[in-house]
Amino acid sequence: MLPEPLRPLHRLARNLRWSWHPETRELFESVDPEGWRESGGDPVRLLGAVPVSRLADLAEDRSFLRRLTAAADDLHDYLTGPRWYQGRVAAEDRAGPGASAPSGAPVPSVPPGPSAPSGLPAAIAYFSPEFGITAALPQYSGGLGILAGDHLKAASDLGVPLMGVGLLYRHGYFRQSLSREGWQQEHYPVLDPDELPLTQLSEAAGRPLRIPLTLPGGRPLHARVWHAQVGRVPLLLLDSDVEENGHGERDVTDRLYGGGSEHRLLQEMLLGIGGVRAVRAYCRLTGHPDPEVFHTNEGHAGFQGLERIRELIADGADFGTAHEAVRAGTVFTTHTPVPAGIDRFDRELVARHFGDDAELPGIEVERVLALGMETYPGGEPNLFNMAVMGLRLAQRANGVSTLHGRVSREMFAGLWPGFDPEEVPITSITNGVHAPTWTAPEVTRLGARQFGHLPDAELWELRRTLRKRLVAEARQRLYDSWRQRGAGTAELGWIDGVLDPDVLTIGFARRVPSYKRLTLMLRDPERLMELLLHPERPIQIVVAGKAHPADDGGKRLVQELVRFADDPRVRHRLVFLPDYGMGMAQQLYPGCDVWLNNPLRPLEACGTSGMKAALNGCLNLSVLDGWWDEWYEPDFGWAIPTADGDAIDETRRDDLEATALYDLLERRIAPRFYDRGPDGLPGRWIDMVRRTLTTLGPKVLAGRMVREYVERLYAPAARSHRALDPVAAAELATWKSRIRDAWPGVAVDHVEAHLTPPAPAGAAELGSTLSLRVRVRLAGLAPADVEVQAVAGRVDDTDRITDATHVPLKPTTGPDAEGRRLYEGPLALDRTGPFGYTVRILPTHHLLASAPELGLTALPCDAMTEAAGVLMR
What we know:
The chain is built from 29 helices and 29 strands. It is an alpha/beta fold.
């Protein structure tokens, strides 16, 4: 029990804002510097271990109490004052429904309030299987979880009314160590929720809240709900380790990404179905607004849409109506660029867990299966695909970089047959990172604006300070690792000479699936050794990363790298640091001069580690993949050339790209780092650091990312959710059913085109007009149900229309004796080169989010109706 004057410490420790607020961390460190280090920077553990005598002294320390009051007041202002989102709310209130405030609009002094106007949601529920908030709450494995944590933190900073939903894993993700032979070993320490910055949710009477699920045969699965406060954002974590459950059920939330298929399915049912039930309970108990928008971060939480459908069916809706209502308010984000990265389950396994004696008894099992089965060309008809279900349950979807959006549209194009991949309704919002979490305190104190005016010598000294800190951290971690590997103290004197704060330092740290190519740098070991040991321009490399426990191939890559790093000739220049996590990363990113990323393009969805490095003035050296593909400039780093093409085999590709990497290091990167002017400074290198900090840094922020989600996805989803009241949702469901029934009879019968002015065969003048007359069959549908379009653009070498424009044609007559209708319209020939067009029919309705939403289109038998060369005169 804290003395009364120190009670505010409890609230400061329980709100995870301390994890990104330097002043609060410094306050806790001053409580007991040694205890702070031993606790790993965890204030909850710290306060549980501080001697009573020390607390008594602090309770009478006026200087400490003033700092405590200032920190508590600052947190109160942060939690209650208006921020960016509240400014948007106020601006829309003034402008009227549907208006949008400019992104840079000032924030007026208005209370945050529980509700929002028609353009912005009152609350958003954000579901993710993992959240990387702080090392003190180890519920993450890699980029997906770190991104989710940064999303919550940025939403808090902006005042966005987000609430996170996830699972609490008893063992978190594994801790990594190495055997003497360099083989990865996994350890699963048990986490005690009572020692974490969490509070268990209870009913009003004080009884712990329980969330129920039903397993096959009617067996119950119970979960308790833990609440973590992430600034302004509540995070709900479900935990099945409760006494009411049997042994098997208690283990559902044992490990992140552990177990077999059924274990994973149960985790995802608890996350999605149980997560919605936890949200409803939290809102009931606290008065928090019910979410209007549900955001699924990857397919793991896709079952949340089914639970919301069940809720509406219980209120009297039919399945189709409930499906449309749920889709309207759902956003789905895909993070994987390869089908193998998606959770897929056997059809019979999924079927067994739903129905009358299992979960969601109000929904027919076939309805559940239809949402996830790969019933499209190229799919596996017996597999239930969580990403496919996510897309079918969401009206809005996105990838996490521009390139990844394009890859996702191609990968999931089978869900929208008849449409070119570029028309598939999956947009992209490029990920960002939370600067206060990932930026070194020295960099944060200076701020981006000052870097433009900071003298070269001071900027260079800052970089050396960060590099020196990384060297000290790496030596300590390397020493600890070798002791775990069985080495005695007498063997480890060499570690004092590992790394050099004045040598060009390269960082490489991430998960270790094969496509990230941890060992590409080892392709030519002799050449790498020459670069490491160059007498005038040496380099040093710090490597970290975990292979999945079941991935022996990834473990072999780790072992190969470790064995090279163990070589006495180079072990002072290349180190592998085991147990990569947030704590290590926060030292690693600032201390590196170059951040290396060499995945197989285009298999890196985004790759945010390089963004975190850039925020600290580290230059990127990467394959043009993920975010680097869209924001690379020579001012910010270097692009590793890729050997793309189907004809090249994997071995040859790796050889070519490794050679390109060595050439860049030897001929461009190292010379620039060591090229010193008369003042002893590498002026051109410092210029690149400065431009990275001032120009690239603002682009990669999570605040920019969350604002884009609000403006481009959350606000439109909230408007759709409100528009689809029970009557409108039923109308849309009925209309879609009618369209699907009639569509086999919809057809383009005949197309005529007349060129004005007339031109010689095969050519036309730029600026000419094609007058189109099209006869169509609508199979009983009304003109208001469809849009007849001309699709025109350049023709590529395969006779595909590219860079297309879409021109609606207008009906001119009623149906003729055969039930056909005539549509007409002009098509301007406004571009040079080979030109082509076709005509198609699409369903249209004012409640659709996009024209391809139903995946229905009708084309002429010959899709390329006409082609002509357009000539400039």
